[in-house]
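Researcher: Please generate the 3D structure of the following complex. Treat every line as part of one assembly.
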Amino acid sequence: MTVVDLPARTHPDERTIADGNDQRKRRRRREYGLFALLVAPNLLVIAVFAYWPIIYNAFLSLTDWNMIAARPKFVGLANYGRTLTDPAFHKTLWITVVFTGLIVVGSLVIGLALAFLFNLPLKGRGAVRTIAFAPHILSGAAVATIWAFIFDPGYGLMRALIEPFGAEPPDWMNSSDWALPGLVIVYLWKNVGFAALIYLAGLQSLPKELDEAAAIDGASTWTRFRSIKLPLLAPITFFLLITTVIGTFQAFDVIAVMTGGGPGDATTTLSWSIYNEGFQAFNAGRAATLSIIMFVILLVVTTVQARVMERRVHYR
Amino acid sequence: MSMLKRRMFLGLAAGATLAGCGYRSVDAIYSQPAGSVPKQYANRTRVVFWSPYGGVNGKAVDKLVAKFNDSQQDVYVEVQFQGSYDDVAQKVAAALVAKQAPDLAVLSDVTWERFFLNDALEPLNGYFTDGFGPGVFQEKLFGEYVVKGQSWAVPFARSTPIMYYNRDAFAKAGLPDRVPRTWSELRSWVPELAKVQSGGRSLRTIAFAKIDGDWQFQGNVWQFGGAYSKGLDVTIDEAGAVAAGDWQREMVHDLGAAYMASSPSTDFANGLVGVIQESTGAMKTIGSKAKFKVGAGFIPSEVAAGIATGGGGIGMLRNISTERKQAAATFLQFLALPENSAWWTTQTGYLPVVNKAREDAELKKLIAEQPNYGVAIAQLENARQQDAIRLYGRNANVQIYTGLQQIYADNAQPKKVFASVARRLDVIGDEVKRLYEEKVL
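Model: Done. Output below.
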C-alpha cells in the first residue's frame, strides 16, 4: 500500500505558497494517521506472529540452549559452521530435494492429467472430482494412520492386494529403499486432488476461441495442448509450483506418524531434522539454525521462480 | 521523531524483548497449566500432574488419582495426559519457557536427568517422612534418582524388559514351555518356530523395536559383554556391543527369523512373532489383546546377565509455590503407600517400587495365579542402571536406535554403524561433560 502524493490544489495566485505548503503538510499528516490506523491491527498481528518469531529464531541460531537452562549461551556462528560442514546435513538436504522434486513434479503432472479428465463431459464426474479432492482436506495424521495400515507388511491392505499375484509386498516403512517412495505416494495421494482442482478451474476459464481457431487451422490435439493450453495455464502452474514447493519443504505430519525420519536417516527431511534437533535433542540453537537455513532456501527458490516466471508467465 | 531517535528506540525495544523473553529464572514461581476442578473438590490446593500413560495404564493412573482425591480434604490432583514420555518432557520444557509449570511430571529414564542438570527439579529430601523416602522404596530403583545424597525424583512406573513368548506357538513347535536361557539357544529354535504358520506365513522368531529399541539393546550389549559407555567414555564401537549387533543382524538378514517392527508388542499380541523383549509395564496390555497363552521369563543371557531398568519416575518442578510443593508431596506420599504401589503393579505389570508392596495380599495372589507378574520382580537382581551416555547425553538414545534401524533395515555392518554412532555420541558426551562432572560425579 502506498500513500498517494496529492498535488496541491491551491493556486499560487489565490494564496501564498507558504499557506499552501502548510495545508498540504496537514493533509498529508492526516492521511498518514489514517493509514497507520488502518494497517496497525494487521501489522501488529503479523509482527507478533510472523516477524518476531523469525527474528527471535535468528537470535536463537547464534546460541547454544537446551530450553531448560536458565539462559542461552551465545556461540556466534558456530552452529552454522557445524551444520554446513556436517555430512548428515548434506544427506538431509539431498533427501529433501529428492522428496520435494518427486512430489512437485508428480502433483503437477498427475494433477493436470486429472484436470483434463475431469473436464470431459463424463457421467459422474462430480462425484469423482469430490473423491479426488477429499484427501487434500483430511488431516495429515489421519492420512498417515490409514496409509500406515495399508503399507503394513503383516496385516496391511497392500499385502492382500499383492500376495494373490505370488509376490511379497515390501516392508514399506521399515526399509530404507521403500520408505521415501512410500511417503511420496502418500503425499501425492493427498496433494494431487488440490492440483487437479486448481488446474480444472484454469482449464474452464481458458478462452475457447483460440483453441477453436487452432483446431480449424488443423492443429493436432497435442499441438493445441502444448502450444495453447499449457502456455495459457502457466500462471496456474506457477502458483502450484510455489505452493507445492513450500508445502513439501515443510511437510512434517505424515513423516512424523509413518517413519519418524527413519529407518536410519532414510526419510530425514529438513523439517524433520528441525523437529529432531529441537524437540528430541532439546537443541534449540541448532534447530533454529536449520530453520533459518530452510527459510533462506525457500526465499531463494521463491525469488528465482518469481524472476523466471515473470518473463515466461503472462497473466491475462 | 528524528531518524536517529527512532533507530535508537527500535534497537532498545528489540534488545529489551530479546533479553527478557523466554528464559527461566531458577527460583521464580510460575503459574499452573489451566484445567478444571470439579465442584466437590473446590477450595483445595490444586496439583497438576502430567502423565504419559494412556490406555489400560492411563485408566489405572486415573483410578489412583481419584482414590487420592477422595482420601483427604486439602489437595486436588488433576492428572493431565500428555502423550509419550518424550512428549511429557517436551511439554514441560515448553511450559517452562512460557513461564508455566505443572507441579508433578512423570519423567522417563532418559529425560529426568536433563531437568535435574539444569536446575528444573525440586530436591525431595526435605519432603521425606517415615512412609516416604529411603528404605521405603526398592533400593535400586530409588537410588537411581539419588545424586550426591539428594533425591531428584521418586520411582513410580519402573520397569525392566522381560521376554514374552507365545506359549501356544512354542507348543506347536515342540519347544519347551519356557523362554530360552541364552541368545544362542533362541537361535537354535529358529527352525522349529519357522514351522509354525501364523497369518499365512511362517512364524518369525523375534521382532526388534523400530523406535526406542536402544533400551532393550542396552541390556543385550551387556549380555554380550559390552557397554554403551564407561562413564561418558563411549564404548559402543567395541567388541561386546558389536557382537550383540551382529547377533541381531544375522537373525534378521542371514536367517530371516527377525525383523524391525513399528510396534513389536502389537505384532506379538497378533501372533506374528514368537518372542519379544518388552517392558514389564506392557504386561496387562498384551494380556488383554493376545488370543493365545502368553508366557514370560527372564531376558536371555549370553556371556553375562544384565538388564536395564527403565520406565518413569515422578519429579516435582522447582518453579512452583511452596504451597503447591507441599500439596504435591502429599500425593507422592500417597503413592508410596504399599497398597497403592501394589495395586498399580496388579493393574499394569510395572514393578512394585515400594518394598512392602511385595507383601501385599492382592499382589501375592495375582502372582500365584499368574506367575508372569512375578517375573520382573525376580529378575530385578540382574537389573542395573544404564550406561551414563544414554542417560545423560542429549539425544543419545535417538542416535543409538537410529543406528539399530540401519542394521535392521539395511543390513549395515554393526561395526561400521556403531563406529559412526560412537563419533556422534562422543560429541554428545562432550556437550554434557562439564555439567555431568560438576553435578553428578
